[in-house]
Specification:
Distance between the termini: 63 Å
Largest sheet: none
Strand content: under 5%
Number of strands: 0
Shape: rod-shaped
Number of helices: 6
Order of helices and strands: HHHHHH
Helix content: 55-70%
Length: 182
């Protein structure tokens, strides 16, 4: 048999609405009969509360609190507080949050120093450069075919057709390559 919400609130030194809110949000466990086991609740409350926001409170003397009635025999060992609903304690969640903020701030500083490149902008630039190179190769046979044909002693149209065929085949092979980012 545990304590009532109001009794636990008095023992903890907080308002009963704070205890009700903690129960509703899953911050502290409640027994099936609606009472609160002070040992479990204290452990869960401490594990899931921001240490910076804790208010110093006067400890409640243990003599003022009546011990719960228990059957004689071996005492059960205290179990660890149940895990937080998200699977992490408040301190762990706070640490993860602070690390993420620090990483974001470092990235913003790197952007200001122009040490970081915007991925979308870089991809667009690479695409534009590759397109310009492809277009230059596609127009190359028409520019040089007549001169090459004259030097080789063959028909200019035949030379241009052959060059265009081989250039397009080669560009098709290049387009099929997968980039290796290692």
């Amino acid at each position: 048999m545990g304590l009532s919400v109001r009794e636990y609130a008095r023992r903890r030194g907080v308002s009963h609405t704070a205890v009700r809110k903690a129960v509703q949000t899953g911050r502290i466990p409640q027994e099936p009969d609606g009472t609160i086991d002070p040992a479990k609740a204290d452990a869960a409350w401490d594990a899931r509360t921001d240490p910076a926001r804790k208010m110093p409170s006067a400890p409640v003397p243990t003599a003022a609190i009546a011990p719960p009635l228990a059957a004689p025999g071996p005492k059960p060992t205290a179990s660890p507080p149940p895990p937080a609903p998200s699977g992490a304690t408040f301190a762990q969640a706070r640490t993860m949050h602070e690390v993420a903020k620090a990483q974001k701030a470092r990235l913003q500083v790197d952007r200001l120093k122009e040490e970081v490149v915007d991925r979308a902008r870089a991809s667009a630039l690479v695409f534009k450069l590759a397109r310009q190179e492809r277009d230059a190769w596609i127009t190359w046979p028409a520019r040089v075919a007549a001169q090459m044909a004259l030097e080789a002693g063959i028909d200019a149209h035949t030379m241009q057709t052959l060059l265009e065929t081989y250039v397009r085949d080669h560009l098709g092979e290049l387009a099929a390559l997968e980039p290796n980012f290692r």
